[in-house]
Amino acid sequence: MPSAHDNQPRRALLLTGASRGIGHFTVKRFSAAGWRVITCSRHAFPENCPWEMGPEDHIQVDLADAASTDAAITLIRSRLDNGELHALVNNAAISPKAAGGKRLSSIETPVEVWDHVFRVNFFAPIMLARGLVNELKTAKGSVVNVTSIAGSRVHPFAGTAYATSKAALAALTREMAADFGPLGIRVNAIAPGEIDTAILSPGTEEIVAHQIPMHRLGTPDEVAKIIYVLCTDTASYVNGAEIHINGGQHV
User: Fold this and answer.
1) Which pairing describes strands 58-60 and 87-90: parallel, antiparallel, or unpaired?
2) What is the C-alpha to C-alpha distance for residues 212 and 248, in angstroms, rounded to an integer?
3) Angstrom distance (rounded) from CA 40 to CA 27
4) Residue pair 89/25 in contact by the 8 Å Cβ criterion
5) How far apart are CA 190 and CA 243, in angstroms?
6) Among 1-10, 49-58, 119-128, where is mean pLDDT lowest?
7) Measuring CA to CA, which residue among 250, 147, 158 is closest to residue 203?
8) What is the CA angle 16-137-74, rounded to 5?
9) Active-site residue flag, 162
10) Over the stretch 177-232, which tens digit does the pLDDT of each residue have?
11) Phi (first) and psi of residue 108, to 5 degrees
12) Which residue, 134, 131, 226, is CA-closest to 184?
């Protein structure tokens, strides 16, 4: 006989930047645990993605555009069962490069590039969290901001706009933890290092060999597992933390 628990709505995750890498594996991790996954990106739903209800629970939005983001928040709110959002993972980010894929320095980065990067990497996360605060509060939910090792040290490949946006997001995570915590919402960050995804730059093998004590890249699934833990009761007293996932690269 089915139990009363079987009739309860599934826990809901809202994830930005789901189409590849860490986001893709985060979808798989939460889906495997029975969560409903709602995704957001600039692109239409990719047909090769693996999660149930993917096309129905995918929202096309330009996170660099405040009006588009506000419209997406309204749509997301209308789709949530019982007005509950159990987790928000702010994973979408952009990292523009100079000609030939080289790092954009603070001297070379045009102001309009800086503005675009911050709109996606920094302003969109707080817009989504504030816009969905009541749904997160109702569910006693969790927010995870994806920062970067580049937010705390100069990186040979990550441009200045990307790095400073991630540093700002780390500071924002602390501020959000203080502001959202009294509402029963935990806010944490994960800071990945060199993860084996499609966006690795030439020269990464030198970092692996000389700067990472474990002498290997991380996998997207290793990052997704920590995101999942932060969104569950296993991490029920973790708030305001930034967890470094980099094999010891920062030591």
Assistant:
1) unpaired
2) 6
3) 12
4) no
5) 5
6) 1-10
7) 158
8) 50
9) yes
10) 999 999 999 999 999 987 887 666 666 777 877 777 877 888 899 999 999 999 99
11) -90, -20
12) 134
Nearest to 191 by CA among 214, 174, 213, 215: 174
> Which residue type does 196 have?
D
Q: What's residue 7's pLDDT?
A: 55
Set 25, 30, 51, 162: catalytic member: 162
pTM of the full predicted structure?
Answer: 0.90
| Overall residue count recorded for the chain in this entry | 251
Residue carrying the six token digits 């580049």 = 150
If 0-12 CB within 10 Å is exposed, 13-18 middle and 19+ buried, where does residue 215 land? exposed
DSSP per-residue codes, the chain: ---GGGGSPPPEEEEES-SSHHHHHHHHHHHHTT-EEEEEESSPPPTT--STTTTTTEEE--TT-HHHHHHHHHHHHHHSGGG---EEEE--------GGG----TTT--HHHHHHHHIIIIIHHHHHHHHTHHHHHHHT-EEEEE--GGGTS--SSS-HHHHHHHHHHHHHHHHHHHHHGGGT-EEEEEEE-SB-STTPPTTHHHHHHHH-TT-S-B-HHHHHHHHHHHTSGGGTT--S-EEEESTTTT-
Burial readout 139-162 (b: 16 or more C-beta within 10 A, e: otherwise): bebbbbbbbbbbbbeebebbbbbb
